Amino acid sequence: MTKKAYLLIAILVLAAAAGGVSYFYYKSTRQIACTLEAKLCPDGSAVGRQGPNCEFAKCPDIKMAGSIKGKVTVGPICPVERPGVPCPVPPEAYTSREVILYAANGITVVKRMHFATDGTYHFEVPAGEYVLNIPQQQGPGGSKDLPKTLTIKSGETLEINFSIDTGIR
Q1: Which phi and psi angles does 6 have, rounded to 5°?
Q2: pTM of the prediction?
């Protein structure tokens, strides 16, 4: 073989090597953009997509230790109620109102929810101390039963029922 042939082969080998290195470098440093979706975790937090396959991140391993549940009564609903014949409470009287679970300081919101159509609510929470309350500016009336400080232990279910007086007389 001639000197030119060796030089040509060397150039081709170097070009192929440079192309291979460039290809693998590009693949290893390539950025992938994941969609901005979120998955709601059982503890109320949310996680997004991440990694080379854009899979959802793992939800935090917070074990729900207990629950707080109860039922609210709202009334009176009619301006004049006859004894023993109360006015039926429409579902909106419940679903338009919220119940809020605060941290022990009574300021930091841990969870909040609207009451179900029958006036029930249910929170799953880690063991600890909480304050249960309703928003102050939420429709007519308030509750003389709230705010209420609660301590929940692991595996415990507290049932806290209370009433909201609409002030209708």
Answers
A1: -60, -40
A2: 0.60
